[in-house]
Amino acid sequence: MLENYGNLASLAFNQSSKVIQQQNIQTKQKHYKCNTCGKVFSNSPNLSRHRKIHTGRKCFKCTACGKAFNQSSYLTEHQRIHAGEKPYKCTECGKTFIYCSRVTQHQRIHTGERPYKCTECGKAFNWHLSLTVHQRTHTGEKPYKCKECGKAFICCSHLTRHQRIHTGERPYKCTHCGKAFICCSPLTRHQRIHTGERLYKCTDCGKAFSRSSGLSQHQRIHTAGKSQKCKECGKGFHHSHHLTHHQRIHTAEKPYEIQKCRQVFNQTAKGKQCQRIHPRKHLI
Fold first, then answer.
1. Integer distance in angstroms from the first to the last C-alpha of the chain?
2. Model-wide pTM > 0.85
3. Nearest Cα residue to 239 out of 229, 230, 228, 247
4. What burial class does residue 226 get, using C-beta atoms within 10 Å of its C-beta: 0-12 exposed, 13-18 middle, 19+ buried?
5. Which of 82, 132, 92, 140 has its CA nearest to residue 112?
6. Nearest to 77 by CA among 102, 57, 109
7. Are the beta carbons of 78 and 85 closer than 8 angstroms?
């Protein structure tokens, strides 16, 4: 009986010692503290990398576009943009991504989850950074300012994109035709010309478009009808440029002139018809 009691006491002591030892390890693992923000790290290198956030030092530079980062892991992720590497895949639809965080964000499209809600207007977002940027539309805050022209922006990516207007930099290049772009999204839209991909589909008639703007224009046929009205005669049009052409009937404006015969037209299409009449050598 005493022997069993002794064994139990010994077992309890050993378990207690292991718990204390584990707690000591965990305590030792997090004793590197940032003096600026108080965040704690398990080792000195992690703390050193973190401190670069506060100092603004960006030692890791992309050789393709010159963009700099304060951590090598951020540079590695960024370089996938130029390499076209997208290692993270959505299990629902198969779409691939450069960053793991973007897969998580994307999957909320399928689940409908929007956990980040604006307290000002109630609008919800599937990513916390989207909420942060959105909230600046209420506060008017534009913390990112262009040193070249003084224009300010609500997020860093908008400033980076804008600065390329001054530098002429176009780091995003089409692998099919070589055309280059200031930012990634126009390249993505452009590449659909080569692939024939049409992601934006009309729920009323099934017609598909390569751009959301094309779908929006098309949907006016079903929803708003001919919303562009002529003030002179009341005739309606689906698109503003069609209305502009029509209004030249009332204003007698004829901005298109054929240099061979000096005829003028209110529409480019009519001018092109006239040009076909003249020999090709006379066309300017």
1. 113
2. no
3. 228
4. middle
5. 92
6. 102
7. no
Alpha carbon distance 120, 50 (integer Å):
32
Give per-residue pLDDT as tens, 217-244.
Answer: 887 777 655 667 888 887 777 678 888 8
Q: Give residue-wise pLDDT tens across range 160-171.
A: 899 999 999 999
Residue 145 tokens, joined: 């300012």
Amino acid identity of residue 169, one-letter, is: E
Token representation of residue 253: 């404006």
- Which residue in the block uniquely carries the two structure tokens 């393709």? 64
For residues 121-126, give the mean pLDDT: 92
Percent of the chain at pLDDT exceeding 70: 75
Residue 126 CA to residue 103 CA, distance in Å, equals 11
Q: Which residues does 123 contact at the CB level (< 8 Å), separation at least 6?
A: 117, 134
Sign of CA dihedral 153, 157, 159, 164: negative
Helix (H) / strand (E) element for 124: namely strand 124-125
Structure tokens at 277: 């009449």
Nearest to 175 by CA among 83, 244, 110: 83
What's the token pair of residue 149? Answer: 């022209």
Closest-CA residue to 228 (of 214, 246, 215):
246
All residues at 6 or more sequence positions from 38 whose CB lies less than 8 Å from its CB, including other chains: none
Name the token pair of 209.
Answer: 């478009």
Residue 252 DSSP SS3? coil
CB 82 within 8 A of CB 65: yes
CA-nearest of 18, 53, 46 to 31 is 46
Task: Judge whether 111 and 89 are in contact, CB under 8 Å.
Answer: no
Distances from the Cα of 237 to the Cα of 56, 69, 244, 247, angstroms: 53, 50, 10, 11
